[in-house]
Amino acid sequence: MPMRTPYFVVDETALRHNLEILKDVSERAGCKILLAQKAFSMFSVYPIIRQYLAGTTASGLYEARLGHEHFGGATHVFSPAYRPDEFEELLSYADDFVFNSPAQVRRFGPLAKAAGKSIGLRLNPECSTQEGHAIYDPCSPGSRLGTTLANFDEDILPMLDGLHFHTLCEQGSDALEVTVQAFEEKFGKYLHGMKWLNLGGGHHITRNGYDIDLLVRIVTHLRETYNVEVYLEPGEAVVLNAGFLVSSVLDVMHNGMGIAILDASAACHMPDVLEMPYRPPILNSGEANEKAHTYRLGGPTCLAGDVIGDYSFDQPLHIGDQVVFGDMALYTMVKTNTFNGMGLPSIVWRDASGKETLIKSFGYEDFKTRLS
C-alpha cells in the first residue's frame, strides 16, 4: 500500500556519507564533533550517528535529556538564560554548560562546578560574515547571544573551563577563518589556560566545495597555539541532502500563472521556507520558466503566504502527482507544527538496501493533546 503523503524520508546512505566526512575531519584536525540536536533530533538513528560523532549539543532541558538518554557520549548545553526550576535536572543530563553572560556564570556556575561539570562562556566577537540572514546572525547589532568584549568580566575567569562562539550559518571555512581572527584579537589572551574552545555550528562541512583543508588548519592552529580541546557542533552538515519530503498535488488552478496546491505546507512542515527565506530543491524541477510548465506551489492552509515558491516542470502537474522536496532532514521535523489543524508528516527510514520503514506516524491526537 503506498505511503500516505506528506512524509519525510531520511536516507541511510546519504547520512553515512556525511558522517564519514565529519569523522575524517575530526581525526585529521584532532577535534571533537557533536550533533546539534536543534537541527535534527530523529533519535531512532542516534545509534548510527554515535558511531561517528562524539556526542550532542542541546539548547535546553528536553534536548539535553534526549541526547543523554538516546545518544550518550558528551552532552553539551547552551541557553541564553537558564531557568532556576530546571537547572538541577539539567545537571543530571549535561556534562558541559555554556553560559551566555557573566551574570549567568555567577548565578549557576558554582552549582555546575559543585556537580563536577565543565563550564564555559559564550562570547560575541562582533564579526558578522553573513549576508541576507539577519535572523540567524548572532553578531548582528543588539544581539542577545554571547558576551561582547565590552561586557566581559575578568573576575569570572577562574571559574571557566572553556570559551564558546557561534556566528556562522551555512558557511564555509573562509568565514570561520575571518571569525577566528576577530576572536583571537579580542579574546585570545583569555584562551591560555582554558581546557576547551567550542567553535559552534553553521559549518557547511559536507557541502560540495567546502574547504576542509582550511578547516583542519584553523583547528590545528587553535589546538597548538592555546593547548585546548576544540569542539565543532554542526547540525545541518550531519544531515545535509540526506532527507526528502514527499508530497502530493491536491489541486491545480490558474491566477495569472499556474498554481498547484500541495498537501505539504511551508508554514507547517518546512518553516525555514518562510523564515529564512529558503527555496528547497525539488527533484526533476527547474527555476520558474526554465522548463515548459511553471507553477507556484502552495500549501493547504488558510495563510495567504503559505507559498513554497515558483518551479517549472517538463510535464504539466495533475492532481495526485507526487512532488519530492530535497534537503528536508534539517530544521524541518524539529520545526513542524499543527497550525490550521494540519497533520504532521510521517517519518520514514530508507536503509542502505533501499528498504523503507515507517518510523513514526501522527494523527488527530497529536494535534488535540497540544492544546488542552
UniProtKB/TrEMBL annotation:
Taxon lineage: Bacteria, Bacillati, Bacillota, Clostridia, Eubacteriales
Keywords: Decarboxylase, Lyase, Pyridoxal phosphate, Spermidine biosynthesis
One GO BP annotation of this record: spermidine biosynthetic process
Cofactor: pyridoxal 5'-phosphate
Residues engaged in binding substrate: E236, D272
Domain (Orn/DAP/Arg decarboxylase 2 C-terminal): residue spans on this chain: 133-328
GO molecular function, one term: diaminopimelate decarboxylase activity
Listed NCBIfam families: nspC
Superkingdom of source: Bacteria
Protein name: Carboxynorspermidine decarboxylase
